[in-house]
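Standup notes
- HV: blocked on the assembly model, inputs below
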Amino acid sequence: MVGLFEYSQGSTVLHRANPVAKLALAASLCVATSLAAHIPTLLAIIAVVLLGAVYAGVGGRALALVRALAVLAALMLIVQTAIVRSGEPVILWVTDRGLDLGAHVALRLVAFAMPLVLMLSVTRMSDLTNAAVEVLHLPYRYAFAITCALRFVPILAQEMARIVEAQTARGLEVDSPNPVRRLRLTVPLVAPMLIGAVGRADATALAAEQRGFYLRGRDSSYKRYPMRARDVALLGLCLVVIVLGAAF
Amino acid sequence: MSITLPTRVAEKSRRAECETAVVPLAYTEPEPSHQAGAEAGPVVSLDHVSFCYEGEPTFALRDVSLSVEPGSFVGVIGPSGAGKSTLCSVVSGAAPHHFAGTFRGTATVDGMDTCEVGLTDVSRVVGSVLQDIDSQMVAAGVEDELLFGLENFGVPRDQVEARLAWALDACGIADLRSRDIATLSGGQKQKVAIAAILALRPKVLVLDEPTAALDPASSRMVFQTLRDLNDSGITVIVVEQKAALLAEFSDRVVVLDGGHVVLDGSPRSVFARRGALREAGVDRPRVTLVSDLLSQAGAFPAEKSFLTVDEAVAGLLEALPCAVAAGPAAPMRASRGRAGKAPCPPVTGEPVLRLRDVSYGYERGRVAVSSVDLDVRPGEIVAVVGENGAGKTTLTKLVAGLLRPTSGEVTVCGLDVRRARASEVARHVSTLFQNPDHQICRQTVLDEVTFGLVLQGVDPTEARERARGAVERLGLPAEAAPFALPRGRRQVVALASAMAREPRLLVLDEPTSGLDARERKTVMGAVDEARQGGCAVVMVCHDMEVVSDFATRLVVMAEGRVLADGAAGEVFSRSDLLARARVAAPQVADVAGRLAQAGFEAFSGVSDPRELARVAEGMVR
């Protein structure tokens, strides 16, 4: 979680493209995922995203993400098979229809999360904010709030890890082999993390205000984010992705 | 982020009058509009200013009148709760614009009444660097962090690049321009924060404890940067707990206590006020103590007090007879005990902690600890020193069982840490982390300390009794909410929780970081008491005065390796080793080392001010 949204240096087309075009591509892959009716299509989407990640030099991170999502996906699969009991029995309580639906849900989860996370690892947060303001005319304060929230996710995760570490060193069994006990002991620790987060957010707000936050307009950004030919091509690719997702 | 304007009773009649002048800056370009009409006289003026935070029963700042001339370097020092941060907030306009409350009096910056203009207008003149640097960062990359303010204030596009390059150069971090902030060290982040403010070309820089989390070498680098900026005409107001830094770099020191200004003057005049400083709970530079001791003994003129190491060395070299340097070592060389304390008897007994050839590497191949061997016995305080990133904190985590060594063996009280869970190791080891807020999780101080004992398996009734004893011994309010206490008191709460468990091994990570002199004394007094009771202590510490005063042994680390392990006085006398590890010796050891190098062998290995004064006195007479 800590390095999830960390920017990865590079000079590939995916790094250089307009952040808005990249955002559109990630969104189109999500739309295609929700439209795709068959498992091979979902697998193809995941494969395309993985290939794109390898091309952009973030293949390792993509595989780590797949591994992390696989746990959640497996859980979803089991839950679905337990809920959907219609169809022919396969093994134990699992039916062919439950398995099919469960596999869809699990693959959709992976295919949904990956494009957005990987898009963020080849895009600087500040570029995303500034491009959203310049190209999409999103009010800066909203764009800043969204990127701050994204930036705070790994910071809060790190803070939580430190709190858990400190409590473990006091003897709190948050390292118990029993996952239920672990969860029961960890949940109350969210409170000190949130107390710290409120103070931190307030300090960030003050620091931003003292550096002219309220003066910022749509044209304030030093860098410019024009939509070039390759960005238009990427937008075209978005349409193709959506159509293919709908067709298969 | 909305501003709540507070109740304000301004007393306009007392407002200072200003004349006209322009602050010169090394960086030149067409003057921005806000500087065109700059007025002369004080650049910052507080006229009977008091401030009370909303919901708080007492005023944090009381009737403070201060006038800061352009180009000054003002150091602010005082105990916790003295109102230092509030003073920064008043000067930067955060109080009353961001922090709601009752504001009395008049605060003027560059001729503007801070209550009558917006926070953004004040920010055009006053650049503020907050205490928590991580919170100050609004971007992920260094360049973006600097651009943020430039873009917002609408600096013309053709000037942005020059401003950016100038600010980075002025802070000596041009090579960090394309780095991610998350990958920087504490000292580098501090400089980025200063550069981001500097790029806006403020007339005044206000910094709140910029070196609290830094090692001595990085602290000096930050102050050197501030000195260079000040030389170029920028007024610097810096809150700092390290008296030695203020004595060396500032040209004016303001001492706050209980919201009042109790002393205000040149470093020499302020640090000469021993009684007033002691009453306020503020330390003096150790070299000043040496000159006081010498003048009290009649061996040195009282008017020649030392402020810096250079002054002390020059003054002593002048006073010491040349014949002594040429002759054999003076016969009165004292035993090399800890400051003001009886030397510790040799420590015997089985080690409580044993590390054998221990290595640890983080992901991405970075080796944090490499082939470390260490034994710590009951009754020892082993200080681990080294620059930020030397592997000290990783070492404490390996001892606490929070990390498992990649290779080697860690044994705590006979327990192999590699095979035990951290919560099991915690039965033998108490750890005090740098940030107390990671440890505190209960509603009252008493509950917090009791909780630590209950986790250890102590019966709840007995735990409460023992906790009450620990809380009373450290003078803490038992029923207070820990998170409502000031930072220093929260650190004492975390310490009380660790001490109440009567551990066999105590691990401390920067136990005195951000504490004032009184709190430092309370914390380290309790630690030393535990040591005398047979507890073994491992202490990571940047404060070399604390190390010199309390450590029975000193371990120097650099790049994950142990470079030296021995008595503090001996290790501090090895200047080549300290330079390699980028560790600064405490003032007294530095003076003694330089005198020994000049031929006065009797000073070799001395690190206690009283001992240094005794040796010097013996030679002068």
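- HV (later): unblocked. Chain B has a mean pLDDT of 85. Residues 353-568 of chain B form a domain with the Rossmann fold fold (CATH 3.40.50.300).
- Next: hand off to the docking folks.
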